[in-house]
Amino acid sequence: MDATRRRLVDELYARSKEHDESRSDRLERFRNVEPPTAELLGVLIRATGARRILELGTSNGYSTIWLADAAQDTGGTVVSVDVDADRTDLARQNLRDVGLEERAELRTENAAETLARSGDAAWEFVFLDAERPAYPGYQRDLIRTLAPGGLLAVDNVRSHEHELIEFTSLIEAEPALTQTVVPVGAGLRLAVRYRRS
Fold it and tell me: What is the mean pLDDT of the chain?
């Protein structure tokens, strides 16, 4: 990420954090990933050369910017979905401010619907950072739509481990994946689909 874009992104994170600290209702908060997590996502996209990138949970677009910046290097694009139309509009403006609006398609829709409509092996990189109680219902389509060699990244696996017990059990039992948890930010599960599956 170049210095100008990095400065703008750092300012966005600082504003978002200040906003969140003034809200008691978690649904009113932006709940952005921590900067080290965002940076790692960008590194992983570049390392894998991923071009077809899906983000489930846009919020105000902070993480989307990191994904789109990496996609700019790989020649890829990001599809990011969120159920909140106001958040989608805000994310679109934030992407425009950093010159990445052409790298990301923002949709206001339910993540389950996005996954259900996606073709087999449609995505090379999936970042899951949405409403955690819904994750078990995503599991089958997450695996189906993840390309062989594709990477699934799931945030908050340490900070909200208690909310992810069922999903974690499903993912850890999935024979198509090899995976680990990285102790960065709120905890990031990384799962790669075996090429032979």
Answer: 97
